[in-house]
Design brief:
It is globular, with a radius of gyration of 17 Å. By secondary structure, it is an alpha/beta fold. It is built from 7 helices and 14 strands. The protein has a 7-stranded mixed sheet. It has a 7-stranded mixed sheet with strand order 7-8-9-10-11-12-13, with helices on one face.
Length: about 260
């Protein structure tokens, strides 16, 4: 049975913030329940894994799980918190003598190549706009609004009747952008704040109050919120839809209809 593992659940800055002594950051430095590396997940099939996003905490995430070899990766978009670990992955491919496979939408690949022009020496960068099948998962992707930060991509993964969505960076999605989310067994959604008071024009990710409205529209069987800033303190109780869980580093979810 495939298992979804949360490598990181934090926003672009992670938690704790180095400069911050708020309640959440203080707890993250002590008992550590709120400690959040940059958002990333992997699908563990027992023999190997497929990862989604490779941020600057990638090396630490691999060490925490005891993984030494990553062969394949999906990328949602080319912001640093989602691709900052690519140089270290490329170096591991070089040392271990194999070529990694990076799958991303075609318009994302040139951005990655400009950032890391030597990457293709060790990793194949493969467009996946028309869909791809990896480890038995039928995977499709589409562009989603990322607010003031431009755009990102969401992924829909389907296998043996189970459907789940990964969408860590989005806001104010249109009906066209949400049509592939409807009725999924699991929606993993980025929510940086519980309620973000800043003007919508300055924002880039859903808050949890807005996400509740999205869930009401797309009706997943279960939802997990990730990409959380230090605004979210897991020691507190929040008013959330019954079907929602807040992600914790290392959390595992079986990807199987009977477990959804």
């Amino acid at each position: 049975m495939d298992t979804l593992v949360f490598l990181g659940t934090g926003d672009a800055m992670g938690v704790p913030r180095v400069y911050c002594d708020c309640e959440t950051c203080t707890e993250a430095r002590t008992t550590g329940r709120n400690s959040r590396l940059r958002s990333s997940v992997l699908i563990d099939n027992g023999a190997g894994f497929l990862a989604i996003d490779c941020g600057p905490d990638w090396r630490r995430q691999m060490e925490l799980l005891g993984h030494r070899r990553m062969e394949r990766l999906l990328v949602t978009h080319a912001h640093f918190d989602h691709i900052g670990g690519l140089p270290e992955w490329a170096d591991s491919c070089r040392w271990m003598g194999f070529r990694g496979e990076l799958y991303a939408p075609a318009e994302v690949i040139p951005v990655i190549e400009r950032q890391y022009p030597w990457l293709s020496g060790h990793i194949d960068l493969i467009p996946c706009d028309d869909g791809v099948t990896l480890d038995g998962w039928q995977i499709t992707t589409w562009r989603v609004n990322h607010g003031k930060n431009g755009y990102s991509y969401a992924y829909r993964l389907e296998k043996e009747g189970y459907v789940w969505i990964y969408c860590p960076d989005s806001i104010s999605l249109t009906p066209e952008e949400t049509k592939s989310m409807h009725g999924a067994d699991l929606l993993v959604l980025g929510t940086s704040f519980y309620y973000e008071a800043a003007a919508l024009s300055t924002r880039s990710v859903y808050d949890m109050t807005e996400a509740a409205d999205l869930l009401e529209t797309v009706q997943p069987r279960r939802a997990v919120y990730t990409h959380m800033s230090h605004d979210i303190n897991l020691e507190k109780d929040y008013i959330l839809p019954e079907k929602v869980t807040l992600a914790v580093t290392g959390m595992k979810i079986p990807l199987h209809p009977e477990e959804s």
